[in-house]
Amino acid sequence: MNRKRVAVLISGRGSNMAALIEAAKDKTYPAEIVAVISNRSDAGGLMAAQAVGIATEVVDHAAFGKDRAAFERALQAVLEKHRIDIVCLAGFMRLLSAGFVKQWQHRILNIHPALLPAFKGLDTHRRALDAGVKVHGATVHFVVPEMDSGPIIAQAAVTVRPGETEEELAARVLKVEHQIYPLALKLLAEGRLQIENGRCRVDGVPVPDTASLVPAP
Ligand code: GRF
């Protein structure tokens, strides 16, 4: 099997990165994580990746000041060096330019801790609690120039429990994130996703089959 070569881009602890690495340990998984790239040298996930023998790279955005194009050129060079097929953003806290995103069109994924299109941006769990939603969750989607938009590949829902804290809710959402990210990457790596009118189909079916939806745990 020709496994797709994946880079995971992180800025922090990297628990989604770890979930992808774990899934890819299985030799029948259609993708392998060949590099973990961080824009911060202190990202906890870097050590975790090194510990399991995965190449790590730091492309420090601060070193490029306001020159985002130069930062992205450096990032692109690292991706090319590792002959990357697919990029997975996993808690990567930099916005990428439209030019960069277009270069990776349909080959770059992101995970967002909310049921998009609700609660784009930061502090999703706090905002979900403040809004009084009964159902919250996580989304894996293709990256497009507009932040937290782009065709949705997989979502998982959790019911909001009365009186629960932001931390408790975040922890339960994180658990389902770790389920849907490996699932979405698998579908992409197997070539099973098609995009039509900005929507993602799985195996040509507009409504995702059961495999692309993790029910509330
Ligand atoms: C996750 O909640 C992810 O959805 C969001 O950033 C967080 C990253 O967590 N984009 P981790 O670094 O994967 O643990």
Describe this structure in words.
This protein is an alpha/beta fold and 217 residues long. Helix content is 32%, strand content 25%. It contains 6 helices and 10 strands. It has helices at 15-24, 44-51, 68-81, 98-103, 124-131, 166-189; strands at 4-10, 31-38, 55-58, 86-89, 108-112, 135-142, 152-159, 193-196, 199-202, 213-214. It has an 8-stranded mixed β-sheet, sandwiched between helices. It has a two-stranded antiparallel sheet with strand order 8-9. Helix 1 runs parallel beside helix 6 (166-189). The longest helix is centred in the last third of the chain and has 24 residues, at 166-189. The radius of gyration is 17 Å and the shape is globular. It starts with a strand and ends with a strand. The structure holds 5-O-phosphono-beta-D-ribofuranosylamine. Residues 10, 12-17, 90-91, 111-113, 174, 177 line the site of 5-O-phosphono-beta-D-ribofuranosylamine. 5-O-phosphono-beta-D-ribofuranosylamine (GRF) is lined by residues 10, 12-17, 90-91, 111-113, 174, 177.
Keywords for this structure?
217 residues; alpha/beta; 8-stranded mixed β-sheet; two-stranded antiparallel sheet; 6 helices; 25% strand; binds 5-O-phosphono-beta-D-ribofuranosylamine
Structural class: alpha/beta
User: Can you write the helix and strand succession as a string?
Assistant: EHEHEHEHEHEEHEEE
The radius of gyration computed from the alpha-carbon positions, rounded to a whole number of angstroms, is: 17 Å
Question: What is the number of strand segments?
Answer: 10
Report helical residue fraction: 25-40%
Look at the structure and give the mean pLDDT.
94
Low-confidence stretches: none
The side-by-side strand order for the widest beta sheet comes to 3-2-1-4-5-6-7-10
Distance between the termini: 32 Å
What gross morphology would you assign? globular
Q: Tally the helices: what do you get?
A: 6
Largest sheet: 8 strands, mixed
Bound molecules: 5-O-phosphono-beta-D-ribofuranosylamine
Kindly estimate the percentage of residues that lie in beta strands according to DSSP: 15-25%
